Amino acid sequence: RVLSLISLAASASAFSTPSVNSRLGATALHVSTRKDFLQAAVFSAVSGMAILPANAGETVTTSSGVSYEILKSGNGPKPDRGELAAIRFAAYAGKNKIDDIFDTPEPYYTRVGSGSLIKGVEEILPSMRVGDRWSLTVPGNLAFGPKGRPASAGKPRIPADAEIIFEVEMVGLPGKEEELIDIIGD
């Protein structure tokens, strides 16, 4: 598998257009640059996780069962594991709204891969770019599991193994974004 990744990476024809969809077995790749391709290929080989395509309007299901639809494509950087990411999201269990921070003054800040969000969302965040807005469907085993979540002040109870719909927007990566002074000048 790694040899096939290396030989594909070496092939100049794999990079003939800025947006190439290739197939390695059942894994779909979205490649915008050679660097993106190599990073995605190495990540896939090491982690065993699917490489996620990034075509607006496309619905994709990962090998773990999380599915997502790209509502809006951004062109900013992708987060690295351990990096601070600013996101806005709304989450639903059926018709019950679990949480919604799209209208709050500040986004939610999380370290990518830290486990501070449900597993299904943690799996997808490293694939998003700043400016992306995706709708995720997270199966119960990658959300709140067989215990669900009891009701708490202002938050409804989540039944066991409930599927969660999670709309998430990557709004910033503090430290990777251009400084305002660089954008507007002195």
Helix-strand layout with pairing:
Layout: H1 2-10, E1 20-24, E2 27-31, H2 34-47, E3 59-61, E4 67-72, E5 84-93, E6 96-100, E7 108-111, H3 119-124, E8 133-138, E9 164-172, H4 180-184
Antiparallel strand pairs: 1-2, 3-4, 4-8, 5-6, 5-7, 5-9, 8-9
Would you kindly provide a written description of the structure presented here, covering whatever features stand out?
The structure is a single chain. The chain is of the alpha+beta class. It has a domain at 58-149 and 157-172: Chitinase A, domain 3 (Roll), CATH 3.10.50. 18% of the residues lie in helices and 28% in strands. The protein contains 4 helices and 9 strands. The strands form 2 sheets. Strands 3, 4, 5, 6, 7, 8 and 9 form a 7-stranded antiparallel β-sheet that branches. The N and C termini lie far apart (51 Å). The relative contact order is 0.16. Pfam families: FKBP_C (PF00254). One of its GO terms (molecular function) is peptidyl-prolyl cis-trans isomerase activity. Keywords: Isomerase, Rotamase.
**Biggest beta-sheet profile:** 7 strands, antiparallel
Shape-level CATH architecture of the domain at 58-149 and 157-172:
Roll
Give Rg in angstroms. Answer: 18 Å
What gap, in angstroms, lies between the N and C termini?
51 Å
How much of the polypeptide forms β-strand, as a percent range? 25-35%
Number of helical segments with 4 or more residues? 4
| Low-confidence sequence ranges | 1-32
| DSSP, total strands | 9
Portion of residues in helices? 10-25%
The 3D shape can be described as: globular
CATH class of the domain at 58-149 and 157-172: Alpha Beta
Secondary-structure element sequence?
HEEHEEEEEHEEH
CATH topology of the domain at 58-149 and 157-172: Chitinase A, domain 3
Structural class: alpha+beta
Return the average pLDDT rounded to an integer. 76
Assembly context of the chains = single chain
EC number: 5.2.1.8
Organism: Thalassionema nitzschioides
Pfam family, one: FKBP_C
Domain PPIase FKBP-type: 82-174
